[in-house]
Structures are given as C-alpha cells and as structure tokens.
C-alpha cells in the first residue's frame, strides 16, 4: 500500500532522514520507533507531504505521491492523526468529527453556501459517517457536547474518529500516546487493537517502544536518520544495534 524507497531529506546540509526505505502492506500495522532526533517526525512529514523529499520516491496505492501536496494525498486515502491534541473550540464533538469528511465530498463552496439539495444530502451523509466514527471510538454519548470539554484521552479518540470519518485506506498516527498516562493510554491501545482487527492499515510513529511493540505486526527502527532494523517486534527488541541506539541515548 505504501512504498517508501531510498528517501532522503536534509536540513542545512545535515541529513534528518537518509536513504530510508520501508513498505506497509494492506492490512498491516507498522510502527516506526527511534531515539530522540532519529528522524521519525521528518519521515512522517515526508509521507504526509508536509515536507518534500530531496531524493527518493514515495508511492501510495501504486501511484507516485512524493510531489503531491498533503490534501491530494489525503484525497487518495491517507488520514493523519497529529501529535498535538487539537480540537476546534466552539464546536460539538460531532461537528469536530464531520470536519474530517468534508475533503471527500464533491459539494463545493457554492453549493454549501446556497444550501443546495446536494449539499444537504452530503451533510446528512457526513453526519451519519461522523456518528459511526464516534460509535467506533466510544464517544457516541459525547456527540452533542462541546469538544473542548473532553479530557485529553478522549480528545485523542475524537481525532481518531475525525480521521476515520474520511474513510482512510491508510491511517497515519504521529505519537498517539504522547501526553497520555495509565488508563487513557490503555484505552487508546485497545482502540488501535480494535482498528487493527477491523483490517485497517496503520503506520504509527511513536517514541514509546513498549506502546508500539505490543500493537504492531512490524517495527522499523530509525537511528540518526537511517533504518537500523526492520522486522517483528520481538526480533527487533533483541537486536544489538537497536539496544545500542537506545542505550546511547540513556547515557
Ligand atoms: N525543520 C528543521 N530544521 C532543521 N533541522 C531539523 C528540522 N526538522 C528536523 N531537524 C533535525 O533533523 C533531525 C531529525 O529530527 P526529527 O524531529 O525528525 O527526529 P525525531 O526522531 O522525530 O525526534 P523526537 O523523537 O525528538 O521528536 C534532528 O537532528 C533535528 O534537529
């Protein structure tokens, strides 16, 4: 589904990501981990289109996307959950989720402004999709409440619902566990496990190794911008290069 081939990106002559290749197959849950400064965020932004590659190729569903802007990649079926839990203030939980589907409808601004029948039809469909997504992440009973009143764990779930509302082929999660503790973290892990059981393809970038390794089929480890390991979590955790990279950080 996603093929990243020999991708590099540097800042001021220093490589943040260097000759990185990774593939995510349909239905796979893949994690990218690595110590601070390993290049995880840069790689994530190269995949989503928020940064452009210096070299290399990115293909999604068999199509080159590395020159496409983020919204075009989104239209092809990439949905992103960003690290910072952001919700739109002054809007309900349902309205926040509905925003996720608007990029996928054909109804343009004019039809929305004039409230043409087609627009009303789309709005109803979007509302229904939002309700399904809220049900999926366990927020159905919060639908009509102000989004900014939600605790942070549920704001993260709301962002997931927003991403799901766009009916993604590939869900991209940027450090989904950051800022969450204890029970909230557990709830999020369970939710990702459920999405995985639904057959959704997921790529998640995460600092927390324990969180990632329990959720993924495969994990790619970055260090100093390069892939140092790629395989099943149990194998990768025992890899001497990986241990050394994380130990290097701790010392
Ligand atoms: N916009 C930028 N300008 C200059 N240097 C950058 C920029 N973005 C990233 N870098 C550098 O690229 C390297 C990789 O950074 P990146 O943020 O991708 O790593 P990371 O693995 O996400 O780290 P962390 O876990 O700390 O967020 C770092 O040395 C960083 O300083």
UniProtKB/TrEMBL annotation:
ABC transporter domain segment(s): 2-249
InterPro entries named in the record: AAA+_ATPase, ABC_AA/LPS_Transport, ABC_transporter-like_ATP-bd, BCA_ABC_TP_C, P-loop_NTPase
Matching CDD domains: ABC_Mj1267_LivG_branched (cd03219)
Record flagged with keyword Coiled coil: no
Keywords on record: ATP-binding, Nucleotide-binding, Transport
Any GO molecular function: ATP binding
Domain of life: Bacteria
PROSITE patterns (UniProt xref): ABC_TRANSPORTER_2
Pfam families recorded: ABC_tran, BCA_ABC_TP_C
Protein name in UniProt: ABC transporter ATP-binding protein
Organism, as annotated: Nonomuraea salmonea
